[in-house]
Amino acid sequence: MSTKKSDRRKRTLEEAVRYFSKCKSKVVVRGNVELQMSLETVKSAAEESGLDPQHITALLDAASSGYFAQSVSRQLIRCLIPTSQVPQEAVVKAISWMSTNKPPVAIQALLLRWILVVYDYIDGYDKLHCLYGILFLFLDSQVMMPHVCHLLFLLTRKEDVKMFRVRKLLSLIKGRVGAQACLTGLLTIYKLYYPNLVSFALPASNRMFFGSYDRKWKSQVREIVEKAASDAQGRASLSDSHNKDPKELSVSRSTQLTSRPPPRKKQRLEVPVAHSSSASTDRQETTDKFSLSVESTKVPFVRIDNFVNLLQHVEKIEFPSQIAACLRDPILQHLMAYSGDRVVTTRFTFWLQHALTEEFLNHSPTNMEENEKLLKMIVDLTDFLQEGVPVIDNFLASFLHTWNGMDYGPFIFRLISRCQMYPISDLNDLILEPLRQLYFSSSVYFKCQCLITLTELLRNYAAYECVRHKDWTAAISLDDPSSTTLKSAPSLGILFPERVNETVQPSAVLQHLTSFINKLAVVGLQAEGENDLLLHVVVNYISVLSSLTEHPGVEHIILPCPHLVRFVLFSNSAPCISRMAAAFCRYKDAFAHIPGRQRESVTAFNEMLVDVCDTLWRNKTFSNPKQGSLKALSVTVVPVLANLGVWQPSSRFSIFQGLAFLDQAWNFFRKTQPPGKKVHPNQLKTVKDAYLKFLQQQHLVGISHFIGTFITRKSSTHRSLAAE
């Protein structure tokens, strides 16, 4: 029954399309029952399952012919929803009808909007690109100008940039139209290809050049295409699952043009499949999809199936029309990172800016799962590039001010950790202040995530951004000392170069970020009662600080604040104390390898070092009258401990009697002493070597390493950097 019903529906649709195709004169709307029934048939079929390519072409001719009223033509154009793909011939016909001037201007503008809605589903772009000059002529229409600029922006190649076109755009900007965002966006692409043709400065590329139109229309198209693709895959899997050769299951990139994966429900989040703008790509792939023409000056990217082909033709590969496909294609990511083409990165930046703004900023998120997939692909791209993307930083600057701290948490934190280096004031406004507000009003788990993210940001600054900033400055001074524009970005491995801000001082930024993390960590430990999880995060932060000088871009040693050291030192976690002791050993190596050691840093480090030595080994926690910072606390802390009945408080935090090590001491006695024998932690002082070896077996290696590095066992004194 369902098959008969489907066949009857197809016959009815064919009759409706045939009715619109046979009309060759003006059609009366009022009282025309056949017109109304045919229109309803087309609308129901399009909204349910989409239209086939031949139906789209026929109905587009009818809507553009001028034989029907504008209301009918408008409804027909909105019904041009494809089942899978839109034939390029239909798009060419739409522009041809616009050139005849038969359709009204409103219908012509709607045709352009339809082309932009289905742009990702067009089966080719070579013939459409041949009409570039004709499309350019429609810029004189204020109604069509935004849509024409957007379409030209997507189609522009290097050979399309001509002086007369630049003059035309400049005349429109300086004339009656003014500096419209759409004209500026088109000029931006022109300037990237030929900077000498556009002399005046243009705004940053992260600006929204083209407005968002037809969101519901795009969403409707997406849902129908997704439904048709999933139905087709379901039928194919049922029919081929038992008789398909396993070798045929591997699908090359060339097959993706005809059998796409199930698309997303929302057009603005669709990551397109790589297309080629070459005319013969599809035809050549069907006959010989594995052969590459060496004689050709350009090799379409859709024919690069593996990394070997990429290496063989890396200088001749033509980028696909949809550069946003790099989010899902690792080979395209390698090509984009290698080429450093500013036009390619600008196209990608525009797509990414549009997607993030439309989905996360302009409207409330409605599909969390799809948004998370997009953010995951962006995170994977930034991890591959090991470089922040400026447009993502701008997105974070707006998103963090309204973020609740929960939605897309893991992905937002990962993007924050890849943020580029900015001046201190900008960094505060962009990241630090929004995170600070969330930090004090969130749970301990959010506090841990926040500190982990900022620690990773600090690590990335030291490992990559400081080195890049140093290379930027050197490259600019070599190219043009009076310019702040980096011309040799690709040779430096920089894919998204921005104008170098001379006010950025990497050392000052690292110091400020460290001070900010110190304050957050101290307040967090106080607020959460020295939570064990938060304490481990803080110790990891101290470990990262101790290893920053291993990176060539860091020229100064950065120390944690003494309050954090005391929190860890007096905690009940032996692993945390051991890890902090190991970090102190790395600090000693860092001071030894950095020439011209900073006296202030040496003094501060020695103060903390004395505190650790006195507490863990020398039993002088609050009783060292000459050195250390704990002597200042003896006046207030010792009386409190005495009132609590704590006997000999100066030795109550050592590795022998400290609460953090009581479990280790008990296990040591149980392993070495006979059952029933009375033991006391003080007895460990007579077997220090055996006890330290036992701590090593318990994976507390940092304690023994610290004792061996800073303590002279015979004299029971500590080594300090000042004494060396």
Structure summary:
By secondary structure, the chain is mainly α. It is 57% helix and 1% strand. The strands form two sheets. A two-stranded parallel sheet has the order 1-2. A two-stranded antiparallel ribbon has the order 3-4.
Structural summary, described in words:
Helix content is 57%, strand content 1%. Among the domains are: 2-155; 386-558, no CATH class; 569-724, no CATH class. The model is unreliable at 241-268, 277-296, 481-493 and 715-724 (pLDDT under 50). It is built from 30 helices and four strands. The longest helix has 36 residues, at 444-479. The chain has helices spanning 2-22, 33-49, 53-64, 70-78, 88-100, 105-117, 126-130, 132-137, 145-155, 163-174, 181-193, 215-240, 281-287, 307-312, 330-339, 342-361, 368-385, 390-399, 409-417, 424-439, 444-479, 506-527, 532-546, 562-569, 574-593, 599-618, 634-643, 662-672, 688-697, 701-710; strands at residues 299-300, 317-318, 711-712, 717-718. The termini are far apart. It is an all-alpha fold and 724 residues long. It is found in: Chromosome, Centromere; Nucleus. Residues 241-250 have a biased composition (Basic and acidic residues). Keywords: Centromere, Chromosome, Nucleus.
Gross morphology is elongated
Query: Fraction of residues in helices?
Result: 55-70%
Q: Could you tell me the radius of gyration in angstroms? A: 34 Å
Unreliable spans are 241-268, 277-296, 481-493, 715-724
Structural class: mainly alpha
What strand order characterises the main sheet?
Answer: 1-2
Total DSSP helices: 30
* Total count of strands: 4
> Largest sheet, described in full?
2 strands, parallel
Overall mean pLDDT score? 80
Oligomer: single chain
Family: Belongs to the CENP-I/CTF3 family.
Biased composition (Basic and acidic residues): 241-250
GO biological process, one term: CENP-A containing chromatin assembly
Pfam families: CENP-I
